[in-house]
Amino acid sequence: MEKPPYVPLDEVDLVDLDRFTGPQAWGMLDTLRRESPVHFQRETDGGSGFWAVTRHADICEVDKDPETFTSTNFVNLEEVDDDLQEARRSMLETDGTRHRALRKLIAREFSRPNLMRNYEDFLRDLTKQTIDAALQKSEFDFVKEISADFPIQVLARLLDVPQERTGQLIDWGNEIIGFSDPEYAKVLISDAESERYKHLPFRSPVSQEVFDYGRQLAAERKGGSGSDLVSMLVNKIPEDGQALSASEFDSYFLLLVVAGNETTRHTITHSMLALLEHPEQLAKLQANPELIPDAVEEFLRWASPVYHFRRTATRDVELGGQQIKEGDKVVMWFASGNRDEEVFDDPYDFDVTRKDIDHVTFGKGSPHLCLGNNLARMEIRLMFEELIPRLKTIELNGEVRRVRSNFVNGIKTLPVRVTTH
């Protein structure tokens, strides 16, 4: 990616979703870091506006301070009605003791030692199966055949759901995360019709389908001895002694289905595209596969699969020279922090040998650090360790199409043509 063209400050509009289907989004974020690093962005859909935080240091300051910048008022831009907040609250929208207790229910499964000990071999086998199936063809959509298929196969094993349900899981994730993309969402979050679904996450009717399926699995596994994630959620009591409510289980299951697939999928896709656009970097990994584990951190910085997460100010506070009022929405633009020139030399250079990569992709130093970050890292590493040695040549074979969203930095299609060794 070349450094994006300059966007004047008075033309910056972070709520114009069409700007996020091309490089202009990066130009806007560059302008904000330089000229207005804590910038008030008005909203045109009835929202109250938000403070866009774009520098790495300020993002970290916000993310590490839940007492001042809470998640309890929700983490996307939507302003959820007060009477619906408890029904829609997930672990993401919980702070403090309860948040820690909910995380610990399954945190051990996602620890690096546990993953290395109990999952690496079977994940590598799954990786090989995905790659073997894709490389039977010389031309295919990398998203459909590899980067969407693999993470969802992993998730299906962790949830212990039948393989034949994986396509449905992918579709659900697309529709929920792609809530602003008309190709994905049955009902766009901006549509008047979404009012009928305002009690559901992202105002998506598909959320109810996910809830229903999760409840079916929970009923089957309640009181059983299974070691899958659903069994853990329905049979373990959080350390604060308060059992999961029905709505907490719903939201936890949906979070696993969506977050467990989408971010890893998009990171793998963006990383492959970057290697296609920088063939000298692909050649380095082909010649020196031992570089791949460390290159994963550059993949994560480069991909920045989630553009932003929101917090809400609990008190009047100064940040980046701006006076933020209690109740204001404060939005951390992780993608911008991952291109901050004060932290990364030549941030628009994709460099698989880059060292000390202090990216904020998973929420650096935050109590809300992505629970699945170790699993994502392992999946990405295994994918490229298994895929790159198989490739003799790989090239683009059509249009790269992106998700219309300022929330998820996603790629819908990546057509490729390959030859193998």
So how many helices?
16
- Output the CATH homologous superfamily: Cytochrome P450
Give the averaged pLDDT, no decimals.
94
Radius of gyration: 21 Å
Backbone shape: globular
Oligomeric state: single chain
Percent strand = 5-15%
Task: Walk me through the structure.
The chain has 16 helices and 12 strands. The model has no long low-confidence stretch (mean pLDDT 94). The chain has a single domain (9-420), classed as Orthogonal Bundle (Cytochrome p450), CATH 1.10.630.10. The protein has 421 residues and is of the alpha+beta class. It has helices at residues 24-35, 56-63, 85-88, 96-104, 112-118, 120-134, 142-147, 149-159, 166-177, 206-221, 229-235, 246-277, 279-287, 292-303, 334-337, 373-387, and strands at 38-41, 50-53, 69-70, 139-141, 308-313, 317-319, 322-324, 329-333, 391-396, 401-402, 411-413, 415-420. A hairpin with an 8-residue loop joins strand 10 and strand 11.
